[in-house]
Amino acid sequence: MEKLSEVIKDIAIYLRKSRAKGQEETDETLEKHNDILVEFAKKHNLRYVIYKEVASGDSIDGRPEMIKLLEDIENDLYDAVLVVDFDRLGRGNEEDSGKIKRIFKNSGTLIITPNKVYNLENEDDETFVEFLTFLARQEYRMIKKRLMRGKKIGSKMGNWTNGTPSLPYIYDSNKKGLIIDQEKLSTYNLIKSLFLDKLLTVENIAIELNKLGIPTPYERGTKWYGVVVQRLLLSETHLGKIISNKTKGNTRKGEKIIKYPRDRWIVVENCHLPVKTIEEHNRILELFKQRNKTPSRAKQGVFDFSGIIKCSLCGYSMTYLKKKDTSKIYMKPCWYIDAFGNKCKNRSGNVDEISKYVLKAIINKRDRLIKEIKDGSSKDNTKTELMIKQKLKQIDKFKSALSKIDDAYDLGDYTREQWLERKSKWDNEINKVNTEIIELENSKLKNNEIKFKEDKIKVLDYMINNLQIKTKPEERNKLYKMGIEKIIWTRIGDNEETIKISWK
Description:
Blueprint: H1 4-7, E1 10-15, E2 19-20, E3 23-24, H2 27-43, E4 47-52, H3 64-74, E5 80-82, H4 94-107, E6 110-113, E7 116-118, H5 123-156, E8 169-172, E9 177-180, H6 182-196, H7 202-212, H8 226-234, E10 242-244, E11 247-248, E12 258-259, E13 266-268, H9 278-291, E14 309-311, E15 320-322, E16 329-331, E17 349-350, H10 351-375, H11 381-411, H12 416-467, H13 473-483, E18 484-490, E19 498-503
Parallel strand pairs: 1-4, 1-5, 5-6, 14-18
Antiparallel strand pairs: 2-3, 6-7, 8-9, 10-13, 11-12, 15-16, 16-17, 18-19
């Protein structure tokens, strides 16, 4: 450690909160670690850059500073990384720890703690690091298990352990439970009244709240939306209950969410003051059940352009209508209404005319690709690969010749002028062959591009041939989606419609 600056100059300091005995460290602890590591770097005369992790995610994906650090290590920016303990780098899954170890090992970057230097290119250090990683991972699993157990026990005791409480409640740390915020209660009662008494939809309730300028339940939420209103109305927390163990998994960690059946939920009654009666809750459920019945138009199924034609103003999919007295399909005006009740101004269009336009566009696209292939020149890449291999062998021979010249110069067989002359000759030969290899690689890319275009033509031909013979709209919908990403539709006021096709 005393002569550290002789082999190490540039380092990264990585700071991250950890959980000790199930409790997450405070910002104050993190600042203490910062002071310890900065003092260490200054004592050993090391240049440093600090990477401070604000959020402490379990996996690398949840740690943006770690992602940046690993990228910088791969770009050889640092000789070493300084951490207060080895497990600050990560104790997540095997994939994450393996990735961290591989990047440090391949780049030759050291890991330094105030007590030890780890070099993963050294077999003993690598084995020791693997052992430390195993212990850290086991400790993390036990902490996680205790946290989950504590949360379940807390719920059974009537303590609030479910994160941010639902409006109009706030968390009281002294009671370890929920109390009613009277100001927020008036907002909740208004929502309940608009739904039960005025019979407004959740979307219309959101519009009313936005017009009144009432703040949303979330700090980052600037507007009310129907889904937020719906969740509030359906929440059983408002009955005085605490419900936990409804799901397993975390999307932020890349885990699949598993929903448990109600008989596996932990439900504790009479935990806090209710803000709705069981009769009101049952009526809310009944109204949602009535409104969720599938309307007859929705039973009509898929149309030719379902999910393909998008409104240019708001980005939502356009909708369609099939009239009972005719087989004709109509595209309706854009249905979208913003958070303040303003309806989108994009008008409807004639589906038959759109179908003709799109078919013509597909034919034109295919013809353009055919022309581009004719204008280019296609060769077999097998011959090109063989030529590249031969060129690489040439470079190996030239490098061998260079090595012999260097050896001869070291032995005194050449003067410096003779050595530079011969070295220049072989350097030029190597550069020349490298240029030829680049040209061959470009030729390969060009041939691959032509092959890609040929594959596109096959798809477009298949679409053209089948669009005119398929009778079911769902079949034509699948055909359109084979080659088209989306169709952007615009028709405002008396202006002519514009159609832009985004190809796959």
